[in-house]
Design goal:
Shape: globular
Structural class: alpha+beta
Strand content: 25-35%
Organism: Candidatus Wallbacteria bacterium GWC2_49_35
Domain Guanylate cyclase: 47-163
Low-confidence stretches: none
Radius of gyration: 18 Å
GO molecular function, one term: adenylate cyclase activity
Oligomer: single chain
Helix content: 40-55%
Largest sheet: 8 strands, mixed
Pfam family, one: Guanylate_cyc
Number of strands: 8
CATH architecture: 2-Layer Sandwich
GO biological process, one term: cyclic nucleotide biosynthetic process
Amino acid sequence: MNLSKSSLNTSASGERLNKFMRARLKPGADKERIDERIWDLFGEEWAVMFTDLSGFSRGVEKFGIIHFLQTIYESERLLLPLIEEFDGILLKADGDSLLVIFRNVNKAVRCAVEMQKTAEKYNEKQTDEEKILLCVGLGFGGMLKIGDSDVFGAEVNAASKLGEDIARAREILVTQAVCDGCSDREGLEFEKIAKPPAGAKAAYKLVY
């Protein structure tokens, strides 16, 4: 994880964290005390969502950059209103991936379900190459939130791995922390998957 100005931001929060990093690198630095101060200042509890579009890179190679832009446009047109409806905050949109945080883990789970259902309904009228094949990963817990630009933590890393690398099209994969924290389970089931990502005690496929 590169904590340079370019990877964080140049906001007050980003600059403060950079100062902590510089102090931490000094010989004889009290790293434990510095870490406590960092968590006191930036540590917050959030649910975090990473989305990805299955087969996207292959689609770009086969159908070209205009198809790439159209797919991005259509996916954001469908999904961003749902993020707002469920009180999520979009931190990043990077190519075919979204990074979103939620204060309420139940809302994060319900948002993920509605996103998948919305994509499925959209796909009913689309050709195979026009379909939006959504993958979602969710984590929940303490993390470092740096302004409105980024989050860092074990649950962030696990959610990223679940959503961008492990989940298949139409799947929602969640960490143990999401499973434990989700109290609104009506119509939902959690099926344990064999290999959780690093940083997660276990992971589950959400059946909706």
